[in-house]
Amino acid sequence: MLFPTLFFLLLGCLFSWLVIQLCLVANIGKESDELQQHHHSHTGVVPRIGGLGIILGFGLTFILCFIFLEYENIKSPVYYGIFAGALASFFLGLIDDFRPLGAKLKLSAQIAIAFMAYSCGLSVDMFVIPFTDIQVNLGIFGSVLTVFWIVSMMNIINLIDGLDGLAGGIGLMLMVLLAYLAFQSNIVISYILALGMVGAISGFLFHNFPPAKAYLGDSGAYLIGFVIASLSLLNSEKGAVLAALIAPMLALALPIADVAYAIIRRAIRGLPLFRPDQDHIHHKFLQAGHSRQRTVLFLYAISLLALVGGLLAFAYQGRYLPIFMGFTSFITLFVFRSQKISLLGMRNELNETLRLRQDARTAIYLRDWFLLETERANSGNNLWEDYCFILKKMGIYKAELLIGEIRRTFSISDSFSSDSEKMWLAEHSIGEQVNLRVFGNQENFSENHFILIADIAAEAWSKAALRWKEIYGYNLDFESKAGESINYQQQKARSLYRPTYS
User: What does the buried/exposed string (b/e) look like for 16-41 if buried means 16 or more CB atoms within 10 Å of the residue's CB?
Assistant: First the structure.
């Protein structure tokens, strides 16, 4: 058994590493990340091609299984569903990497992929209540749980992909876990596919561990999430439902808690639930001065301890339940401490957030309006005039936008003073040569309120620049000219009145 184990591990690793290395040498994929998106913590151009190496490594493993394993072991609708779903997940993410899709469209596609996998035989039909022998037949709810499980896992892996090596490393741990569970349950195909993914992710991590030369991208995140979900469902068919489904969730306990808190935080603030920000645990570590390497290794350790705690709890009929509860409490306390959460702080933040909720929602509406104006603007100068308009409506006192060597300034008063005792200041880097400085009057904003509004203002220009690049094929600057109108309606829209500022 040692030889095939090493063979699939090394094959997946070598193939994934080689594919990504060749893409880096050939500069493939860099066009997907020429403009740094707002809230991304990296600088420079880092191609999001990790998913390509992983899917090819996984695909090679599947092909070898198809060739060498017995007919009944591989040529089943279930396994076709796993490979087809993995491929569909990869291409969905790949499209989103190069041409961002709307949240509703992506969710609809993910549900379709999950339902296709369910139709091929991947499902949870029976559930055993933890630490008892009681079995519950799920009936029609099994399909709902299956689709929810697959879609949730795809999005969880994608949401934690905010730091070099983090999503890939946690995905690697989960694949090792699934390989172990498959081995214990004697599910040969699941064992081999999990080994292939372990190797493929390992090959990717050679290029992704801080400082990253390649990113996972949505293509890799969706792929890893789908394979984790599908292999855990496959393992559950042989009676390992608790370990196969719950143990992966325990390994993801820290990211899940972090994401859950982020969603609650955004809901209270009146922000879109899936709007990215820099308030996650790994961002807090980086802001505290820790290196990327130290941060990701620490989060690896926490996730690994949670995984081991869950395995001990369920592998020995609840004998080690106190250990599991201890890990759960530790992770919960860690999340609260890293986010600087206290009962008094939560109450104060809730009161302040509810008071300022309308301002945040208004800023989001202004951001979305400004993004639509990108399609109507005749030039970069027109777009700057619109930007000044939304800055004024957001309550910004002064802003300085630097693109290359050209600086433009907006101010609501000629007698501006940047006295630190009277003004808040936020600085944002929007790409390699685009920087924004935003000032707010302390009489009008609390610090947290100003940071949020300034962040939305920076996000507005960042999204507009990405949209301009997408429409016209070149970067946005103040002297940029829009391409020719494609129809009469667009030309008429461009001729509408635009406010001007001196």
Answer: bbebbbebbeeeebeebbebbbbbbe
Q: What is the 3-state composition of the chain as percent helix, strand, coil, each rounded to the nearest 5?
A: 65, 5, 30
Tell me the three-class secondary structure of 405-437, residue by residue: CEEEEEECCCCCCCCCCCEEEEEEECCCCEEEE
Domains and CATH numbers, the chain: 2-250 (no CATH), 357-494 (3.30.450)
- Whether residue 219 contacts residue 106, with contact meaning beta carbons closer than 8 Å, is answered with no
Is there a contact between 361 and 353 (Cβ–Cβ < 8 Å)?
no
Give residue-wise pLDDT tens across range 175-224.
Answer: 888 888 788 777 888 888 888 899 999 989 888 877 778 888 889 999 99
Average pLDDT (359-381) is 86
Q: Which residue in 99, 96, 142, 138 sits closest to 118, CA to CA? A: 142
CA pair distance 22, 444, nearest whole angstrom: 53
pTM: 0.76
373 touches 390 (CB < 8 A): no
Buried b (16+ CB within 10 A) or exposed e, 244-255: bbbbbbbbbbbb
Q: What is the dihedral of CA 280, 403, 272, 337, to 10 degrees?
A: 20
Going by C-alpha positions, the residue among 315, 82, 53 that lies closest to residue 189 is 82
Q: How far apart, in Å, are the Cα atoms of 7 and each of 156, 176, 188, 319? A: 30, 15, 15, 36
Q: What does the DSSP assignment read for 180-196?
A: HHHHHHT-HHHHHHHHH
Q: d(Cα 267, Cα 284) in Å, to the nearest integer?
A: 20
* Spatial distance between the Cα atoms of 435 and 385, rounded to a whole number of angstroms: 17
- Helices and strands, number each (H, E), in the chain: 19, 6
DSSP states of 337-350:
HHTT--HHHHHHHH
How do residues 28-56 score in pLDDT, each as one tens digit? 765 554 445 555 555 556 778 888 889 99
| Nearby residues of 497 by Cβ (< 8 Å), 6 or more positions away | none
Q: Is the pLDDT of residue 383 over 80?
A: yes
Contact between 161 and 170 under an 8 Å Cβ cutoff? The reply is no
CA atoms within a 13 Å half-sphere pointing along the CA-CB vector of 60: 21
Angle at Cα 260 formed by Cα 257 and Cα 264, nearest 5°? 140
Q: What is the rounded CA–CA span in Å between residue 308 and residue 365? A: 45
Whose tokens are 């989060």? That residue is 299
